[in-house]
Amino acid sequence: MRDQLFQRHPDNPLLAHSDWPHTVNAVFNPAAVRLPDGRTLLLCRVEDRRGISCLWIARSQDGVHDWQIDPQPWLEPCPQSYPEETWGVEDPRIVWLPELGKYAVTYTSYSSTGPAVSLVLTTDFQDCQRLGVVMPPEDKDAALLPRRFQGRWLMIHRPRTHLGSDIWLAESPDLVHWGRHRLVLAARRGAWWDAARIGLGPPLLETEQGWLMLYHGMRETAAGCLYRVGLALLDALDPGHARLRGDEWVLGPREGYERQGDVGDVVFPCGFTIGPDPDTLNLYYGAADTCIALATARVSALLAWLERHASAPQYEPHVQCWKPRTG
Predict the structure, then answer these.
(1) Are 93 and 80 contacting, i.e. CB atoms less than 8 angstroms apart?
(2) Closest Cα to residue 168, out of 322, 303, 31, 326?
């Protein structure tokens, strides 16, 4: 039942280290967007043999075949101006902001201080306007929502606190200054598949029922960490409120390219596109921290599954922070 929601593409993996114009170690965790000309753009995390990651662009007319890879990275670490990037730039998410006419790319900037969330704006993936760190360490797995709510931008992010690694939401008047943080979804405890830590997968998808969230959950096992994907539904008017959370995972490592690699037993989505049929979701994900794969699903089927297999999240009093403004 779980695997029927997502269908892996028969040509997986779509991209690997051997596709790059020079020697690299691994290619994984891509952001995704469909360009105005119909092509699919993947912003891929590419790790070199030092262990340092850059962000590279790959384009395809059909989102599956004949990927055209830029000759140079789109975003490289710039530790002279941005010391938070000394150890690399990783795991991007892309959101189109109609109000600004720009794409917002959130990514993990990594240094000795730990992972932080940085933000860059672009109109066409040629220019690059860096805004720098917007969430200080330790934080990652962030994406903006595409429009303002009550005059403020919202960002989903994943800080690590003494309570654990949970999914939070923050507000900003200007995309630079962020505050009014509150918990959206907490990692479960015990034997659950998402007991150790959770984090946002791709950016939220707006539906008639609310904001559909795909998130990754990690469980620690005797054999190591195991990363899988689950579903939640956030309120349409108040995305800081999770209405439903699936009890079971819906996509987990099964194939050889997902189970064997630099970090085995990992499926880690950072991006999706919607097909010509608005009900088709194309989910691009990193497999075993080594290559890029594609799985498709019906948005309507994901929402129907949530109605049958989800419950309202339960929160512990000590991690509730603030209520949204009503005026």
Answers:
(1) no
(2) 322
- As beta bridge partners, residue 311 has 245
Q: Are the CB atoms for 23 and 301 separated by under 8 Å?
A: no
**Helix-strand-coil percent breakdown of the chain, rounded to 5?**
10, 50, 40
Residues in the chain with pLDDT values less than 70 = 1-3, 315-327
Alpha-carbon span 81 to 325, nearest angstrom: 37
Q: Counting every residue, how long is the chain?
A: 327
- Convert 261-289 to b/e letters by CB count within 10 Å (16 or more is b): bebbbbbbbbbbbeeeeeeebbbbbbbbb
* From the candidate CATH numbers 2.115.10.20, 1.10.150.130, 3.40.50.150, 2.40.10.10, the one assigned to the domain spanning 2-314: 2.115.10.20
Chain mean position to CA 188: 20
The DSSP letter of residue 15 is: B
Which pTM was predicted? 0.94
Q: What is the pLDDT of residue 310?
A: 87
The three-class DSSP label of residue 323 is: coil
d(CA 69, CA 60): 9
Beta strands 7-8 and 26-34 are: unpaired
Res 224: pLDDT: 87
pLDDT for res 315? 57
Does residue 146 contact residue 98 with C-beta atoms inside 8 Å? yes
Give per-residue pLDDT as tens, 248-297. Answer: 999 999 999 999 999 999 999 999 999 999 999 999 999 999 999 999 99
